Structure prediction request, 163 residues.
Amino acid sequence: MGMILEFYRLSDEKIIELFNQPEKVCSEYLEKNYASVYGKEHRENDTVFSLDKTWAVIRFLIISADTTENKILSELYGESQTDNVFDNYNFLLSKKVEVMNDLLQEMQTNDLFKFYDEIKMKNEMVYNESSYHLDYLEKQIEIVKLAFEKAANSNSGLIINIG
Prediction:
């Protein structure tokens, strides 16, 4: 399991174009333009949203709070390209981002903490190096919500880099 997770906000057309390229071309483009702080598309908390090793705990909390019948937030960190699986990159197109954003924005961050259960996380093999201070987790959750909000408001999709 990787230690960081980043969301990259791109148009659906660009996401589809990238995932139709060889993995190396896609990876190089994303590394050069988004992952690198010197990349021409790298704008922190606008086109790039970075989480540290808390991302697995955050996913656990959000999915635990998902009350939808089909648990749509279980795809919080994207879906793999089925024909051409890329090791570290998943994606969500704009329509799914919009639905997920509506659910995320309805959630009150503090309400998620009632699902914080270290024993259950350990049993479900959720990476949790140690107990996290809830204020820190709250800031990281807000980054996730911001990524989805900005993408939904600009009719964009997200590429998720789990690295």
User: Anything to note?
Assistant: The mean pLDDT is 89.
